[in-house]
Amino acid sequence: xxxxxxxxxxxxxxxxxxxxxxxxxxxxxxxxxxxxxxxxxxxxxxxxxxxxxxxxxxxxxxxxxxxxxxxxxxxxxxxxxxxxxxxxxxxxxxxxxxxxxxxxxxxxxxxxxxxxxxxxxxxxxxxxxxxxxxxxxxxxxxxxxxxxxxxxxxxxxxxxxxxxxxxxxxxxxxxxxxxxxxxxxxxxxxxxxxxxxxxxxxxxxxxx
Length: 208
Description:
This protein has ten helices and no strands. By secondary structure, it is mostly helical.
């Protein structure tokens, strides 16, 4: 019996929904789909645009935040939602692109413990974390003061918009994952180091 991907019942007919374009755009090297996308095959229309939006937010060459801080936001949203799947994948990406793995672990431990005053967080990460937490848990309470706090820390308007977009978009991803019961399974956790290095290089090259 094949391993259950999610709570949605898999049907043989769903495999017919995997198009050649889908394999090319979102498929893995072996042509198969990640479990996240396998879970959507009962209604696959959003898969490609959702993946394009995800990559535009997190992996764009002109990323204002850069990959490390972007993965920081993504991982914290996953932690706040207790989303095991996203926490594992993006937490691992964050560790792989951290200055040192030990430093990355200390930062994630502070987030897991809800210790935003931890010395592991520099002022920039602390400011990002406070905004991300409030937007994730108390969206109706957001005010212009929250934006002002990010400005006072030194973030540009583009960086603030980027923080907002990652936190807001991952609110979608973690709710989709938790709501469909998508499990980790045995697929590789996080992206390959080579792929992450290429994203970082393109971002640095873009800004010269």
